[in-house]
């Protein structure tokens, strides 16, 4: 389905991600895990060619660059300018642009925007400026944008940082539903206590690939110690 081949990226001549290769063969939710500085966000950006990088990504046997309409990417909220004068519905509508023909008008597709906002329980905020939203509300709006885009591949960079529990639960339920509809979702994540509940498979990074596979095979003390060192807390217990 999708294969990452030797993804490598560097900052200031320092390798941040080194020769990462793996394949995902069915719709699934993949957690991208590793300690701070492991290259998790860099891997996403390198794979999507958002930064200079080497390696290839193949989707259905073709370069991912030929299937850009099938890709939705949500960057970290900290990288977004909340003062930009744009409303909630306008943010969501941005997800429609890859599918519009030159002669089509945006207003003819606004029912999709409204449906997406309803799916994330943000329909009452459609005319709010994004700076008026909480972190969790804004993350739900970004997810609504991916819903209207209807991409097959969804890449989320730390979507649960700084958001409320309600928003996190709404987002995870939506992501599970999207997987059931045939989507493949990649999530950069740092909270090890929720790994078993959230993900089907894990990519464990520390610049290079430590392991990739089902949670029960990768989320083990052996691999975690290789990535994080000898001591770490999982769910309040020292491992």
TrEMBL record:
Q: What InterPro entries does the annotation carry?
A: AAA+_ATPase (IPR003593), ABC_transporter-like_ATP-bd (IPR003439), ABC_transporter-like_CS (IPR017871), Metal_Ion_Import_ABC (IPR050153), P-loop_NTPase (IPR027417)
* Pfam entry (one): ABC_tran
Domain ABC transporter span(s) in chain numbering: 2-232
Supply the name of the protein. Answer: Manganese ABC transporter ATP-binding protein
Q: Which UniProt keywords apply?
A: ATP-binding, Nucleotide-binding, Transport
- Give the species: Enterococcus canintestini
Which PROSITE patterns does this chain map to? ABC_TRANSPORTER_1, ABC_TRANSPORTER_2
Query: Which SMART domains does this entry report, sorted A to Z?
Result: AAA
MF terms in GO: ATP binding; ATP hydrolysis activity
Flavoprotein: present as a keyword of the record? Answer: no
The answer, when asked if Transport is one of the entry's keywords, is yes
User: What protein family is recorded?
Assistant: Belongs to the ABC transporter superfamily.
